[in-house]
Amino acid sequence: EERVLNERTGRSAEMFKRANRSLSGGVASSYQLRDPWPIYLERGDGPVVWDVDGNQMWDFHNGFGSMVQGHAHPVIGKAIQERYAKGTHFAAPTEDAIAVGEELARRWGLPQWRYTNSGSESTMDAIRIARAFTGRDTVMKIFGSYHGHHDTVMVSIGVEYDKIGEPDDLASLPYGAGIPQATVDMTVAVPFNDVGAMERRLEKLIAQDRKPACVIMEAAMMNLGVVLPEDGYLQAVRDLTAKHGIVLIFDEVKTGLCIAAGGATEKWGVTPDMVTLAKALGAGLPMGAIGGTEEVMSVVKNGSVYQVGTYNGNPLGVAATRASLIEVLTPDAYAHLDALNDRIVGACDMVIQKYGLPGYAVGVGSKGCVTFSPTKITDYASFKANQDAELSDLAWLFNMNRGIFMTPGREEEWTLSVTHSEEAVDAYVEVFDELASDLMS
Ligand code: PMP
User: Fold this and answer.
1) Are 67 and 59 contacting, i.e. CB atoms less than 8 angstroms apart?
2) Domain residue limits at 435
3) Is there an atom of ligand 1 within 6 Å of 122 CB?
4) Considering its fold, how many domains does the chain have in total?
């Protein structure tokens, strides 16, 4: 499969050579890397993308889950063009920024909002606000979760199984070089889906006078495929953090706008103190947002925290976002995504049963994946111990060679867009059936 893909992507190989002369490693972001070269894309239209070699693919990557609106959506294009003609950037507020804030407040039930330009900025600012609000430094996160590329959260992600540590005392380890040890030490990780472990770790920290400012987490882990919260888990975390006066941040950079109109907060009916958004929010433009309660966000309003950025609330970004929220991501759109995802998850499960493949399909809203594991993944440790990484890599190559464009990592899920159809998801299932048949015969 590897050889076939390499033969089909000769122009990408040439571009990679050229790119290496001006771009570090030949790409714009390390997450775009892939051996022996990345696939350079040229064009996207609705649910379809074309690479520079002219290979046409159904897009299940969707810009790491950003393009829930589909590529080149005419409504978004019109909003961008109209805004562009009137000027793209003032660093002064525009009406669209208000309209977006009103809609996000309605969807999340959180009254106060600010904008950023990425998921990383959103989580960085949210954590600072939580620290200012509580006057505390320690941050608690879920082991294995990714929350962006700033120092505080580049901790305890992508760790090898033998370095994970004990459930009640998981390691704090930097993700890559250049992160100060003092910052690493301030971030404490606990396992997902285990409120008992969170409670015991909290008690230990409180005894050491290191009570956290916040717990930052995804309501469903979206970087181990898809790991759903077990019944009652989110409410138990909500109760525990409220009891200790710890700010609960749901990082909805991936789940927000993708799994329901009001993200995980609506889906599971648990409202945190703060929410962070990005990715699908901007419909393909770099938009992020932070929402919070009046109480927590008061540290922004009263000027004690500088929540700032030249491009925050950029007119082009908020115009695209407004059009996306009001005209594209409608209740009908979410009903369409739910129905399509049920279809693809159900069909993948049937394939798994038909061939006796060790694995299962899981999905929520526009997100889902086939997890190659004989047992259910509930947290990072069980992912590392059970997920068949080799098979996941093979599935990626197999898909790419048959016109299914997926994220290069083995830890990502598919994202459907409102422009995906039954034809698109059936194409995915057909390729999966072929893979399962090849493997199990
Ligand atoms: N939080 C989560 C949950 C994410 O998945 C990501 C990106 N994968 C981020 C934050 C960071 O977003 P960005 O890449 O826009 O900085």
Assistant:
1) yes
2) 2-68+330-440
3) no
4) 2
289 shares its domain with 391: no
Where do runs of H (alpha helix) occur along 113-251?
A: 119-134, 181-186, 195-207, 233-244
What is the pTM for the complete model shown? Answer: 0.98
> Tokens representing 166?
């004990």
Q: Does residue 163 contact residue 169 with C-beta atoms inside 8 Å?
A: no
Pair 282, 347 in one domain: no
Residues 14 and 33 both lie in one domain: yes
CB 253 less than 6 A from any atom of ligand 1? yes
The answer to whether ipTM exceeds 0.90 is yes
Domain check: are 81 and 54 in the same one?
no
Q: What is the pLDDT of residues 365-423, one digit of tens each?
A: 999 999 999 999 999 999 999 999 999 999 999 999 999 999 877 788 999 999 999 99
CB distance 218 to ligand 1 below 6 Å: yes
Q: In the predicted model, what is the mean pLDDT of residues 42-49?
A: 98
E-state strands within 64-181: 112-116, 139-142, 165-166, 169-170
DSSP state of 324: I
My answer on whether 108 and 227 are in the same domain is yes
Q: Which atom of ligand 1 is nearest to the CA of 120?
A: 16
Judge whether 290 and 122 are in contact, CB under 8 Å.
yes
pLDDT digits (tens, 9 = 90+) for 267-298: 999 999 999 999 999 999 999 999 999 999 99
**Mean pLDDT within 167-175:** 95
